């Protein structure tokens, strides 16, 4: 670990979360401090993306990976950071819609260069309407 003992890291986790979740207790000693610091920064800390939006992204992402642990975690975290049920529903619906377009474009083997060119034209047009 990065200079801290397992008990020191677990004490900080307990102080932050109220308990040491079982999944943290199973992380090897030499990785715990590192994994906790990343978790604390990305999941709990203020980053460039506001926490509510990060959690809505997490819900959308894991609605596709079908990880029930991650979907539950990000749904509850989103609510803690102020997301409404309607925002959560919209995030999931957005994922469904985006994944559908991905399946369609890949399935018909849309020419990527043509797609990129047309997207540039659409972007320029919309920006000109500004």
TrEMBL record:
It comes from the Bacteria. Residues 43-105 form the Carboxymuconolactone decarboxylase-like domain. Pfam families: CMD. GO terms for molecular function: peroxiredoxin activity. InterPro entries: AhpD-like, AhpD_core, CMD-like. NCBIfam families: ahpD_dom. This is Carboxymuconolactone decarboxylase family protein. It comes from Streptomyces luteolifulvus.
């Amino acid at each position: 670990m990065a200079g801290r003992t397992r008990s020191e890291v677990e004490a900080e986790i307990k102080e932050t979360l109220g308990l040491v979740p079982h999944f943290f207790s199973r992380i090897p000693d030499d990785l715990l401090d590192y994994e906790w610091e990343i978790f604390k920064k990305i999941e709990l800390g203020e980053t460039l993306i506001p926490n509510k939006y990060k959690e809505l992204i997490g819900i959308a992402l894991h609605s596709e990976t079908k990880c029930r642990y991650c979907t539950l975690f990000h749904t509850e975290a989103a609510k803690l950071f102020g997301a409404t049920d309607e925002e959560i529903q919209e995030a999931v619906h957005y994922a469904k819609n985006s994944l559908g377009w991905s399946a369609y474009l890949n399935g018909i083997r849309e020419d990527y260069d043509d797609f990129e060119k047309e997207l540039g034209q659409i972007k320029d047009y919309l920006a000109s309407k500004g």
